[in-house]
Amino acid sequence: METVTRKNYQLIFLYLIFYGLSVGVWTEFSQLWLNSQEISISNIGIIVAIASLITSAIIILITKFTKKINEIIVLKVIFLFKFIFLLIMTLGSLYSIKWLSILSYLVDCVINNLIILITYPILTYIIKNEKIYSKRKLVEYTASDLGVLVSSVLIGKSLWNINFDYNFMLILSLIFTIGAATSSLLIKNNDQFKSKQNSKIKTIFKDKILIVYLIYYFIGQIAYYSALGMLLLLVINYGSLTPTTGGLFIVICYVLGDVFGYLALKKLTPKNDYFTILIKFGIRFVVYLFVILFPIKEVLFFAISISLFVSRAYENKTDGIYINRLPQSQIFIFSNIRYGIGFVGKALGVMICGLVFEYGLRYIFGVCAIFLIVQISLGLYLVKMRNKEKYSYLL
């Protein structure tokens, strides 16, 4: 790997660390912040859903009308907008301008979605394999977990006449965003990152495995967010935790999930991909059934712990292996399609979560379990399709 390319590679992971910290110190607590401004949980779900749908619409426009794009320039512009709208959100919160805070929050959600969209295609210009997909996610996850930990320890406390409230977390997120933006600006803009979108969408959809994968991904997004789309609100309202203990509980689960994710990536990936699907999603389905049968907070904590523990593992086998089926020239456009579909799924999931939230744990996890059954079935079918394809090649 030549010097410039190596430096770009390191800077990409550096901005991922800063970005993860920015998201971690604020995002988990942002829904509590909205709720503290007398916005109902169902309306919070609608706000997050709108942000996801707007992102999906932007992605569709990019896919349809953009023939040539420089991803690094786009990334730098996106980070500039993230800084501006985080600043506006902070000012709106400090001066109690409710509509401005909510509008800025919505735009920031859209921007975060776009950053997630563009990062992996950028990495593939430098290195492309299944493990780099998981590595990128795990670095982002670890930084985000550290941010959640910092907020959980500080929130609600006072030190040196400084109140560590939601506004302080917003300012902290703003500072980390500056670090992420600066790191992205230092990435050398060379021909490596210039993408010509000359492949037609119909070419991608000729691959039957990718069509099934997109359906699987869509259902998976609904399944995840219909139960865990309002995670901190869930453990506070149904687990009787404070924001501090709730945040600490979540971050401990995330950290254990990161550790398992690293181990899974290095040593613990089953050779049989059927087992991989059952470990990642089958176990989640079983513990959700326990919540449906015994809707008490002890079982809720157990289910969330197990779900988050397995959620960050095996992404190289459940997602990366399908994305990397495509040649480099088609990855960006496929990522657009995938995330566009995924954000619609997320919107539906969070909206469902918000609508059934007040009906109780049985409803929240019952709806999710239905989607999980479909997701697991599709995941196993995808493995069967790949095995059949591999066997046909051998013949």
Structural class given helices, strands, pairing? mainly alpha
Largest sheet, strands/sense/barrel: 2 strands, antiparallel
CATH topology: Growth Hormone, Chain: A
What number is the mean pLDDT? 82
Structural notes for this entry:
This protein is mostly helical. The chain has one domain (3-394): Up-down Bundle (Growth Hormone, Chain: A). The chain has helices at residues 3-36, 41-65, 71-94, 98-124, 130-154, 166-186, 201-204, 208-228, 231-237, 243-266, 273-293, 297-311, 315-323, 328-356, 361-394, and strands at 68-70, 158-159, 162-163, 194-196. The strands form 2 sheets. The protein has a two-stranded antiparallel sheet. It has a two-stranded antiparallel sheet with strand order 2-3. Strand 2 and strand 3 form a beta hairpin. The protein is globular. The two termini are 37 Å apart. The mean pLDDT is 82.
How would you describe this structure in keywords?
395 residues, mainly alpha, Growth Hormone, Chain: A, two-stranded antiparallel ribbon, two-stranded antiparallel sheet, 15 helices
Q: What's the short version?
A:
By secondary structure, the protein is mainly α. It has a single domain (3-394), classed as Growth Hormone, Chain: A (Up-down Bundle), CATH 1.20.1250.20.
SSE blueprint and pairings:
Elements lengths: L2 H34 L4 H25 L2 E3 H24 L3 H27 L5 H25 L3 E2 L2 E2 L2 H21 L7 E3 L4 H4 L3 H21 L2 H7 L5 H24 L6 H21 L3 H15 L3 H9 L4 H29 L4 H34 L1
Antiparallel strand pairs: 1-4, 2-3
Helix pairs in contact: 1-4, 1-5, 1-6, 2-4, 2-14, 3-4, 3-6, 4-14, 5-10, 5-13, 8-14, 8-15, 9-10, 10-12, 11-12, 11-15
